[in-house]
Fold this protein.
Amino acid sequence: MTKDLTVGVVGLGAMGLGMAASAVRAGFRTLGFDLSPERAELAREAGVEPVAMLDEAFSADRIVFSLPTAQDVAAVVERMAGLLQGRHRIVIIDTSTSEPQVTRRLAQRLAQMGHGFLDAPVSGGPAGAAKGALTMMIGGAAQDLADAQPVIDALSAKALHVGESGAGNVAKLINNLLCAAHMVTTAEGLRLAEAAGISAQSALDVLNAASGRSMMSEVHFPTWVMNEGFDSGFTMALMQKDVRLARKLAEETGADMPLTEKAAQLWAESPYAPTDDFTRMGDFRKEG
Ligand code: NAD
């Protein structure tokens, strides 16, 4: 079935490509744009119509962003602002892990032109994106959400409306701060296990059957750390960005968080390259 709305996806990386494929599977005509022509060609194989220019992606009714940073999101919106003046109503669903203040500014600007902008960051990784089974945490106006709902349903298994514009970004930064902390605390636990004479695998099996578990211990360690695969598809650069933004949020709000502050410091000072997978921080075989 082909649905009435056309979807544009801007950013066809590890996450955006899978989301575009999920939109196609749900029956939407889907246009895809990426700065990298190779990514656009990969999208074609999934049934996406690659477009060469950003403004062609903006001919769609609902536009999904999956871009690295808030600065990339703002730059795309600024570039399109002239074109959007007086045009048919669009709603942008920004799934990037972005910054609440940038989101609020963009949402206000677009609302003045009659357009919608939701912050809708996601959890679930490239596999969740490809399956249309992400968890989405949404900030924004109820009408924008209602208008975007069919697309949100195609991309997510669970979508939570957290509050007003920026609320989704806040929730996502808290979530990823905890992922980052769980990654290092789980690695420390397994290091202690080996130092105290039990195998890391035995300790992990216990954690995952007991109360010390987390998604890091249940999914990330078994899938990408224990086998030294380190290829979850989420880079050090992106996780370091998230931890840095969560830390900034704590500074701005005055929230006291001494333990996660220490975890944030470990991530900021990591010896790994920005392009390395973030699961390398779980390598309990190396000293912290
Ligand atoms: P990625 O680097 O794989 O993909 C980003 C894509 O955006 C690249 O293909 C790049 O060429 C493209 N791009 C950059 N600027 C652009 C522009 N101006 N116009 C068009 N395309 C542009 O990153 P990713 O892992 O897919 O992450 C995307 C976003 O989702 C990030 O904000 C990240 O924090 C978030 N996220 C990632 C994961 C994950 O597991 N990878 C999970 C949840 C959230």
Observations:
- Residues 167-195 form the longest helix (29 residues).
- The chain has a mean pLDDT of 96.
- The radius of gyration is 20 Å.
- The first strand starts at residue 6 and ends at 10.
